[in-house]
Amino acid sequence: MRKNIVAGNWKMNTTVPEGVELAKAVNDAVAQAQDLKCDVVIGVPFTHLTAVKQVIDINKVGLAAENCADHNSGAYTGEVSAPMVASTGANYVILGHSERRGYYNESYEMLKTKVDLALEAGLKVIFCCGESLEEREAGKVEDVIKAEISESLFHLTPEQWTNIVIAYEPIWAIGTGKTATNDQAEEVHAFIRGLVAEKFGKQIADDTTILYGGSCKPSNAPELFAKPDIDGGLIGGASLKAADFMGIVTAF
Ligand code: PGA
After folding, report:
1. 35-66 b/e with 16+ CB inside 10 Å = b?
2. pLDDT at 142
3. Strand partners of residue 234
4. Is the CB–ligand 1 distance for residue 130 below 6 Å?
5. pLDDT digit string (tens) for 189-235?
6. Which listed residue, 90, 110, 128, 140, has the most CB atoms within 10 A of its CB?
7. What is the DSSP secondary structure assignment for residue 218, as one 8-state letter?
8. Looking at residue 90, what is its pLDDT?
9. Ligand 1 pocket test, candidate residues 42, 211, 235, 244, most atoms within 8 A of CB
10. Smallest CA separation from ligand 1 atom 7, residue
11. In contact, 131 and 191? CB cutoff 8 Å
């Protein structure tokens, strides 16, 4: 069955003490909430994983790294591998965010390797895709999404696919205050589900969770989440305040 998920992506924000406070506040709010209609995940900097794991109930609040290396161990100064992430008790990793693709030159091929290593380490993957404004204006949305998903994910087995969550994040909507309209987002989500159906069949496509990301906030989340192919959100800015994040978590 398809799961709804609201995941926070803190990006490069908060010190460890600040992050622990925020995680505690989210954990307490989730523990007190009645009848939540979605799973909750927080994506935090590598430095925070171990400390945050200690203050959350991992059965109620999932814990994600925001990246992992394309190697498991060795002479890669400054990198953090998927087995290292898993050893903190985290159960998710966000891969392919447009900021990583753009600023750190992550290619389809590199992301394919990262996805494989993450799954091998037992992590679930929140895999991001999305077009730039220029690509949208040139009518290339479907080409971009299809390439990003198929080149890095379509080598997986149906069994591996059960550990993949897709996040559609139009780059022009990230951190800009410009949300895709509900219909714009739904159109791409339906296209993504169609791609998954072509590759893995209708049942697996129906079971796949597809999140929307890009200036999602408590005020626009209910309308976005009401769309048939939008199964939750990947939340940047609004995940940095527990009250705002919970406003989105409770939007279903
Ligand atoms: P935003 O970021 O919610 O701040 O737009 C979303 C994301 O980049 O995951």
Report:
1. eeebbbbbbbbbebbeebbebbeeeebbbbbb
2. 98
3. 7, 213
4. no
5. 999 999 999 999 999 999 999 999 999 999 999 999 999 999 999 99
6. 90
7. T
8. 98
9. 235
10. 236
11. no
pTM as predicted: 0.98
- Candidate list 66, 99, 148, 169, residue with the active-site label: 169
H or E, element range at 126: strand 124-129
pLDDT tens track for 113-150: 999 999 999 999 999 999 999 999 999 999 999 999 99
Condensed to tens digits (0 to 9), the pLDDT of residues 39-84 reads 999 999 999 999 999 999 999 999 999 999 999 999 999 999 999 9
Examine the residue annotation and report whether 189 is marked as an active-site residue of this protein: no
**What gap in Å lies between CA 238 and CA 226, rounded to an integer?**
19
For this structure, is 198 an active site residue?
Answer: no
Alpha helices in the chain (DSSP H): 16-32, 49-55, 82-87, 98-103, 108-120, 133-137, 141-153, 158-161, 182-200, 202-207, 221-225, 242-249
Cα(139)–Cα(99) distance, integer angstroms: 22
Check if 8 has its Cβ closer than 6 Å to any atom of ligand 1.
no
Query: What average pLDDT does this structure show over 15-28?
Result: 98
